[in-house]
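Hey, sorry to bother you again with one of my protein questions. I've been puzzling over a protein and I'd love to understand its fold better. Take your time with it, there's no hurry, and the full record follows here:
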Amino acid sequence: MRRYFITGLFVLLPLVVTLYLLITGFLIIDGILGNIIATLVGRPVPGAGAGLTLLMILGTGMIATNVIGRRLIGLGERIFLRIPIVRNIYLGVKQLLDAFSNSTTKDSFKQVVMIQYPKNGVYSLAFVTSKSKGEIQSKISARCVTVFIPTTPNPTSGFFLVIPKEDCIYLRMSVEEAFKLIISGGVLVPVYELEKNI
């Protein structure tokens, strides 16, 4: 019975969590404009808020890709940056999005490395976020890279380090495989042909 229960739990848990996140995400998106539509129509229209939100995102993207749209967005940003509290929030969110955007940092989170951390002889998986530059690199003689070491089982938190590039052991595993390895606590180890031949 115990074996059946554990097996059933491992089969159903990913499905339940996935459905829960999808439904919760849909309800949040639908609720953004859903109340406005309900007020205008006189009754709630399930899914109308989500549809209108998606259309608004697409419309904003279309406007932002032409010259006039970029100028309007630039004007809006300048207005936001003049408001003291709003400025800090807006800049923080924008910088975070820019950091993970492929259009601005093509090399971020593309390479998995292994480094000796927290001490020599102990290895941790890390993601190269960028080549070190600016004031940080000017203070260090060795060519450095910046890396992010995620924690287990929550990879959204972790440690930021600046280390010499020569101290990184570059791995073949993909970012997705590394995340699976970290989240599972080392259970889901990617196996390559090289290992099979040994």
Summary: The two ends are 39 Å apart (CA to CA). The helical segments are 2-41, 48-64, 67-81, 84-100, 134-138, 175-183, 193-197. Residues 113 and 171 are 5 Å apart (CA to CA). Strands lie at 111-116, 123-131, 144-150, 158-164, 169-170.
